[in-house]
Design a protein that fits this description.
This protein has 104 residues and is mainly α. It contains 5 helices and no strands.
Length: 104
């Protein structure tokens, strides 16, 4: 299992049932996932890990922070979609992000 998956999974375990705790854990994981994605920009798994981490932060936050995370996730997804790198199960993600308020 990729390291970024472990970080995201651990953040999810720490924050179960506690929105504030979840947000703290998700924010702590985000820089690690972001760094891994930045160092391996052609790795689709790393990029979708970052999208998932951004979505988790957005789901536990509000206002500008939520909107910024959703927009950043959508930028990544739109690029992956235009490059035809999204797996079949991931092709709905851009629409889901847009429906969550991540307009672009």
């Amino acid at each position: 299992m990729p390291f970024s998956d472990l970080v995201v999974r651990r953040a999810g375990q720490l924050g179960k049932g506690d929105k504030s705790g979840a947000l703290t854990a998700y924010k702590a994981a985000l820089p690690v996932v972001r760094r891994l994605a930045r160092h391996d920009p052609d790795n689709t798994a790393r990029q979708t890990d970052l999208v998932a981490a951004l979505y988790r932060v957005a789901s536990a936050s509000a206002g500008a922070e939520r909107d910024n995370c959703l927009r950043e996730a959508l930028v990544i997804l739109d690029k992956l979609q235009s490059d035809r790198k999204l797996a079949a199960a991931q092709r709905r993600w851009p629409a889901l992000i847009r429906a969550s308020g991540g307009r672009r």
